[in-house]
Design brief:
With about 110 residues, this protein is of the alpha/beta class. The chain has six helices and five strands.
């Protein structure tokens, strides 16, 4: 599951504003793959917390739906989760580029 930079990825990278629009219109749900303490600090409203380690060790149990935006702190762990989801055959898989760092920079709302 090596990530390629040639555009041949099995998931789409999206920015914070596009992610928010998709969330607001019900086109996608959010899965936050950060550690518990990171999620507790702040997260996107209604995000499901599923740490990356759980996705890697029990992918079929952890990833059961399509239309998912994976989120972490800077976008690297979530890219791994998106690769796993795509490998399971999910077709509408998104990675929040820049993660929560980018989300906060855009001053988008978070829950605590």
């Amino acid at each position: 599951m090596a990530e390629s930079n040639d555009g041949g990825e099995a998931f789409r990278r999206i920015g914070p504003r596009e992610a928010k629009a998709m969330i607001d219109t019900g086109q996608a749900t959010v899965v936050d793959v950060r550690e518990g303490w990171e999620y507790a600090r702040d997260h996107i409203a209604n995000a499901t917390h599923t740490p990356l380690a759980r996705i890697i060790t029990k992918p079929q149990e952890a990833i059961q739906s399509d239309n998912v935006i994976f989120v972490c702190e800077v976008g690297q762990r979530s890219a791994v989760a998106a690769e796993v989801a795509a490998a399971l055959g999910k077709e509408r898989v998104y990675n929040l580029e820049g993660g929560m760092t980018a989300w906060r920079r855009e001053q988008l709302p978070t829950d605590h």
